[in-house]
Amino acid sequence: MEYTETVTAINHLFTYKVFDEHIYHKVQSLFSNLSVRDAAGIFGDLSNEAIFGLYLILDDLKTTNEAKEHIIYKYYGLKIKEQANETVEGSLVEQILEDYKKTSFLALESLIVKMLKEDRISENHFEKLKGSFDREIIEERDLLQQDKIKNQRQIFTIRKRTIKIVRI
User: Fold this and answer.
1) Which residue has the higher pLDDT, 115 or 46?
2) How far apart are CA 29 and CA 25, in angstroms?
3) What's the rounded Cα separation, in Å, for the pair 75 and 69?
4) pLDDT tens digits, residue range 37-77?
5) How far is 157 from 4, CA to CA, in rounded Å?
6) Dihedral of the alpha carbons of 97, 90, 107, 133, in degrees to the nearest 10
7) Among 77, 79, 83, 107, which one is least packed by beta carbons within 10 Å?
8) Of 120, 67, 62, which is closest to residue 96 (Cα–Cα)?
9) What is the Cα–Cα distance from 75 to 48, expressed in whole angstroms?
């Protein structure tokens, strides 16, 4: 089966937002026909419904971690986008943290950093984040006041990478 036909078939399976064992087996079969490269890149061609459906079976999906990471990144990107420019709901932040603890996907770290940069995480959930990354946080500082704007910088080390987050 060609890549385009596989994408169309997966999208069609999730059109009606109904999920059962038959669909699960069909998705597994379709993914088994994909090359590693195609599986990793398929997330960009799948419908939102397909991404939401695949998220539900992600743990059991027989594909590469790279493909799973791309799917989970797009899933959470869509969930965050649903909340427009508001603070991201606490339950969603907690769900991201749970998935991060389970998978350690760097894509989830990127989402967390992005939400922090965009000031989309409440102070309460910011404290939870700090607690979740307790071992990885190496430094936390309040910085100078420049041009009458007070900046707080939090420097996180996540998986041996240092990421600077500026809160204005």
Assistant:
1) 46
2) 6
3) 10
4) 999 999 999 999 999 999 999 999 999 999 999 999 999 99
5) 40
6) -40
7) 83
8) 120
9) 8
